[in-house]
Structures are given as structure tokens and as C-alpha cells.
Amino acid sequence: MDRLKAKERIEYLRSFLEENSRKYYVENAPVISDYEFDTLMHELEDLERAFPEFDSPDSPTRRVGSDISAGKDFVKRPHKYPMLSLSNTYSISEVEEFAERASKGLSEAFTYSCELKYDGTAICLTYRDGKLFRALTRGDGVVGDDVTANVLRIPSIPHTLTGSGFPEEFEIRGEILMPYESFDRLNEEREAAEEPLFANPRNAASGSLKLQNPEEVSRRGLICTLYHIPSGNIDAPTHVEALTLAKSWGLPVGIENIRICRSIGEIEDFINHWDVHRKELPYPTDGIVIKINEMALQRELGYTAKSPRWAVAYKFKAEQACTPILSIDYQVGRTGAVTPVANMEPVLLSGTMVKRATLVNADQMEMLDIHEGDWVYVEKGGEIIPKITGVEESKRLPGAVKPVFPSVCPDCGTPLVKADGEAKWFCPNSSGCPTQIKGRLLHFTGRKAMNILCGESTIQQMYDLDLVRTPADFYDLRYDQLFLLEGWKEKSARRFLDSLKQSLDTPFEKVLFALGIRFVGESTARDVALHFGSIDALANASMEDLLAVPDVGDVVAGSIYNWFRIPENAVEVQRLRAAGLRMSVDEGERAEDVSDALEGVSIVISGNFSISRDDMKKLIESNGGKNSSSVSGKTGYLLAGEKPGPEKIRKAEQLGVKIISEEQFYALLPGGNPSGNSSEGGSLFGGMDTVEPTLF
């Protein structure tokens, strides 16, 4: 490569990597994979070595990516010791090169500490006189955000140390993680509010740690694991012994998942073991960290400007497949957002068959340079959400053309609009677009909203028969009108009307969520409902009033404010009030603990019970237990009702998790089966269900 082309490539790579570093660390919305990022970073490093005249102290090869928040949201504080990143490797041969470099720099024999590489967001904790004094994010490695108030709400981080022998003051570093069950719950809520989903638990953990409301942080289900004590903080000859001491003081250190290795062969065995068994863990990991175990030798090897010479990260390769796009759909959501979705030739990824993947928006389609019939690379982001990461251009058909993003709503034909600062196109015809209308009706009747016995097929029929156009229309339906629905007879009609009647007891926070205000998910609806107390106070709130609610920013506040100033919405609220829906907070609705019989026990429920699944979850929580959505080695019980999921049963048996019946569960509670707490559970009739690197 000649000098001019090298200069152009270096400038491009620096700009591209800086932009993607910002998306990864600050926006928590990466658009390229870790592997792509690291590959381009290595290319830049090679070019800078070959053309030293273009060296720059501001190059991303010389600086750690920064997660520092813009503005004054958090106090910025300097780190006592720099928090650097690790060099990443993707092959055993690269691990061998690391070991060879370390051997050349050391005069005596050493061992390796091999550990899981947790996929979360870095944290630095300072303990003073045995009490948590400060918590800083990694920031730019020199200065971090002070998130102490939020970290105090993470249960696994002790406020006060136990035992004895800890220093008067010391630092310990690790990772804040979001377990899969917390991630699933959060994304379900965001999907219901048509907010952008977090791509993976790492992004969700990072975003949650930067929330302004510590109470909301406590509800996000974050955990912490600690894995590094800066040299000199604790008097121990080896890294593993230092962590063992920290564990004895009550700190969350995963000593059980660390192995001391003495050869590359042992390291490779450790890597191969966890490449398989990491899928059984309840939290995300994306590799193995290999460290020189002896503390004196760590000090001898020292650091580069960006990373320690005594440690390296081996990254697991994301499971990826290449498959052709068959077609692209443009789906209209209940708020009018138009989302492109690729229909692909089905392909097996991480144990599930993937045949659809979102293309996010028009900008993402352009960035990927998607053409009709392209073969695309598909990964599961965080092994959760299918994501198209690239195109195999060598398989592109001659004459293939780019798909044209629609300029009008694919459902009602209304010209699409895009607001300033938004990436998505919207259909503004909220009152006349059939898909938006049916989407709002389905949302309103959903289990997490009003829980009305009315699924997608029923709503389609009611819409086609012109029986229902707004949620308030449900409460005006007559018994005889229900017989117009295909297959409905007296029993079906009575069950539907009974569910309508029961919905009148729905708490105000769920009523507010059911209204379908854009960006208002379950958590936001709860916070707003408790803050204002009634629909009238909320309707009359100013922007300043709304912004006073913790974690409600300009976008959410503006959405709520504007919704209540649309005349049709004001009429709808009055009709729902007249129907008998709750429009204010009832203090008696707040759950109180009944006992601590299940204190600290994680329980997964599966199947149908004599009470509703929501009531079962409340019963678990009111007795001190914790609901989990997936079976793991830390699950206490799998509570199996009628027709439990076979996959959960299989995994519980595989991991040795005890499976209990509903009767056995009640036997664990004081007084047995609680009286007066029963309702019909399950579906009542067919077809009616609503549908980074590791940092130090």
C-alpha cells in the first residue's frame, strides 16, 4: 500500500472505530460485532506500525473506549489506578503468542489464572473501613462516572464487609451483569411499549447502571461479579489468593469458576469446557481471560498505554450462519412505526430455528447494503435476538437491486413521516390505519394490561364486523353481538364478558400501560401512576411536572404530554372512566410481604395452575421468593403445573433442579394453600390467547 492510500485508510479506520466505540460504550447500541471491531482495530495497529509518520496520540489504538456520560448526569471522578482494556484473541495460536511474550519478559516460572470473561459493564468499587465508599464506571480509563447511589441498589454488592483482615481502604474491580431472566423481562416490557429492544444483556446492564432513578436500578435485576484487585491493594502473593481473601469478606467473586493452569494444553481444555457449558450459566459470558497469576510478575511485565502485558482475553466466536433472504416485510406497529423484517431460508442457530430477523430501519438497511435475494450472515446477539450482521457479496445475483423502503404506509397508504432525531419512519394516520387500530386493541387486552379474554383472531373479527375501533368499544358490546363471531356460542360469550367485568378491577398503573402511550412501558407506567396518583393529575401535568418523575426524560415526557392533548384521547379516557375502569391509585393495591418462607429461593414456573400465573408469581414474591424465567444451576425449584414446557423439564432434570407440583409448593408456605386466592388459569378457549472487552 502506498503512503497516500495508507493515510486515507488510517483516517477512515480511526473515524469508523471512534464512531462505533461511542455506539458501543455510550449509546449501548452496537451496530457491528466485537469480532468486526477487533479485526479493524488490528488492521489500524498494523498500518500505524508500517507508517509511523501518521502516528497520533488520539488514535483509538492508544486510548481506551469511553463510557462517560455527556452533560452533568453523574459526577466525574479520577481513578486511583487507570482502568485499561484487555487485548483480544480469537485463536489458541494467539494465546500461545501471548504466553511466549510473557515468558521472554520474565526470569522465573509462572502459572496462569484462567477465568470466565463476563459480558457486562465494568465497575470499580472502593471500600473504606469495611464499607462501600465509592463506585465508578470505567469511563475513559482515567476518569469515570460516580454511580455509587445506583450500585448500592444491586443486592449482590455488600454495603459492609464481613470477616476481618481487610485493608483500611482498597479497590476491587469487576463487572455489572444482567442475567438472562432480567434481560428477557426488560425487553418484553420495552417491546410492549414499542421502544427499541436492547441487543444483548451487556447493553441492558450498561444502560441500567446509568439510570437516574436508583429505585428503577433495583428493579432491573442486576448482579455483580468481581475479578481484579489492583496490585498493592491486598498483600497476597498471587492473584487467585487475593480473590480468595476478597471472597472471605463477602464480596461476589466467582472463585469456583477459576482454574490455575500450567500449560497451553490446560488453558485450551478450560476454553473448550466453557465454550460448551457457558450456555448453562444464568448470565452472559463471551470468552476466557488468561492472567499471569503471580502478582510480582504482573508488576514486572507492566502495561502498554492501553492494556496489561500480563493478561489477554480469548473471545468465543459468535455462532453465525449464512442464509438467503427470501423477502422483506414492512410491518406497522401499534404506534405507527414501520419496521423492515427479513424473511430468510430457515437456519439453525444456538439450538433454535431462525427464519426472520429485523433489519431495524431504513438507515440500517442502507448501512448493510442489502440487495434483494442477498445471502446474509445471521447471529444471535447475546445468543438471544437474531441479528443480520453482514452480506456475502460474492453470492449476490447479477442485476440484484436494492429494496425500496416504502414512502407510504403499507397498510393504509398514508405518506410516512420521520421526526427529527428519529431513525424510524411512521404512519401518522393513527385513527384510520387498520394495523395501528388492531395493534392498540390487542395491546389493551393483553395479559400484562387489562387481561381481557380476546386474542388476535377475535380482534380481527370484531374489527371486520365494525364492532370495535377503540378500547372503550369493548365495554359497549352486547351479549347478542358476540354471537356474530365465528365459533362463538353462549359459553365463549359468557367467558369474554366475565373477563371484561374482571378487568374493571385492574390497578390504575396497568390501565395507564394499557392506553398504549408511546414509550410508556410497564415500569414507566408504574412510576408515573404512583407519582401523579390519578389520570386527572396526569392529564393536567406540565412538561416540567412530567420531567420531575425519575427516569422520565424529554422524549417520554413529550409523548405523555402530547397524548393527553389529542381530543380523541380525552374522549376515550372519559368513556373508559364511565365504563368503570380505575383511574387513580388505590393504596391498598400495594403488595405486602406475607412471609420469608421462600427467602432467596429462585423459582421457575411452567404450565397452568389453579390460580393465574401472575397470581402465582405474586405469591412467590410475597413469601420472599424470586421468579425466574429460565432454569439454571441456581434455580431452587421448577414449579410444574398442568402441561409444563418439556424443554424446562428436560433442563431441570439435566441440572438436578427439584421439580415440584402445585400442592408441594403450597406445602412450603405457612398455612398451606392460601384461601380465597383462586381463579381460572390458562387459556380458556382455543385461539384466544394474546399473542467489550472485559475491563480492569
* Residue-averaged pLDDT: 86
Q: Structural class from helices and strands?
A: alpha+beta
Report the helical percentage. Answer: 25-40%
Low-confidence stretches: 675-696
Percent strand equals 15-25%
- The number of E-state strands comes to 21
Distance between the termini: 36 Å
Tally of helical segments = 24
Largest sheet: 6 strands, antiparallel
* Rg over C-alpha atoms, rounded to the nearest angstrom: 28 Å
Q: What is the molecular shape?
A: globular
Describe the model.
There is one protein chain. This protein is α+β, with helices and mostly antiparallel strands and 696 residues long. Helices cover 34% and strands 18% of the residues. The chain is built from 24 helices and 21 strands. The strands form 5 sheets. Strands 12, 13, 14, 15, 16 and 17 form a 6-stranded antiparallel β-sheet that branches. It has a 5-stranded mixed β-sheet with strand order 2-11-10-3-9. The relative contact order is 0.09.
